[in-house]
Amino acid sequence: MGLFDFLKSKSKALTPNKLDLGWMQTDMHSHLIPGIDDGSKSLEESLEMISRLKDFGVKKIVTTPHIMSEFYKNTPEIILGGLKKVKEALQKESIDIEINAAAEYYLDEFFLEKVRSGEPLLTVYKNHVLVETGFVTKPLMLVEIFFEMEMNGYKPILAHPERYQYLAQDKKLLHEMIDRDIYFQLNLLSLTGFYSRHVQAFAELLVKENRIKYVGTDTHNHRYLDALESLTQSKYYDKIQEISIFNTYL
């Protein structure tokens, strides 16, 4: 092999493979309805990000705006109204991809009251509801809320569990959730080190132990999608594709 061939081969090896998320089929965690949470800021930005997800091989999107009593006071009406505008814009621009909406509910006393009062929740799939907590401290009502959701016919999906410090540090709680069959949704970016090395390590453990039921991009802006392109360099990129996930049913 000549020097030119060697350098060409080395350059090719250092070039990351093109990201393919076709195996996932549906991205079920993102923030693509403009102006209603900390995600997309404009309809133009939403269309750009949706186009990029389509280029990554995503065939369907279930976007999940935050519903948080103190910060993002969204309602099903606000979310579905925003979804309608996004769908109309996609059709106008001939961007052919299916998109629906659910929500990412923050677990607090206000959410608990919604559940107890029988207020209909936006679901990702059938009775599956995406929920989140703060990142540092375990919510006092965590187990109680999960119990109330289950009693009211809902299946909790815990968004990005790998990002919760309290869960990584409390193995008893982790296994209690596993025993209760709480579904875990992994952020694919966690496998790239995007959030931190500690988050990456916990994410890899959950994948290794086959604890993941859903995966998502949790796309908020283009910075997320730029970072996501490095997923192909993760040692868990192939392994995550071998897991049986609910995304393929959506």
From TrEMBL:
<dbReference type="Pfam" id="PF19567">
    <property type="entry name" value="CpsB_CapC"/>
</dbReference>
<keyword id="KW-0378">Hydrolase</keyword>
<dbReference type="InterPro" id="IPR016195">
    <property type="entry name" value="Pol/histidinol_Pase-like"/>
</dbReference>
<dbReference type="GO" id="GO:0004725">
    <property type="term" value="F:protein tyrosine phosphatase activity"/>
</dbReference>
<protein>
    <recommendedName>
        <fullName>protein-tyrosine-phosphatase</fullName>
        <ecNumber>3.1.3.48</ecNumber>
    </recommendedName>
</protein>
<dbReference type="InterPro" id="IPR016667">
    <property type="entry name" value="Caps_polysacc_synth_CpsB/CapC"/>
</dbReference>
<comment type="similarity">
    <text>Belongs to the metallo-dependent hydrolases superfamily. CpsB/CapC family.</text>
</comment>
<dbReference type="GO" id="GO:0030145">
    <property type="term" value="F:manganese ion binding"/>
</dbReference>
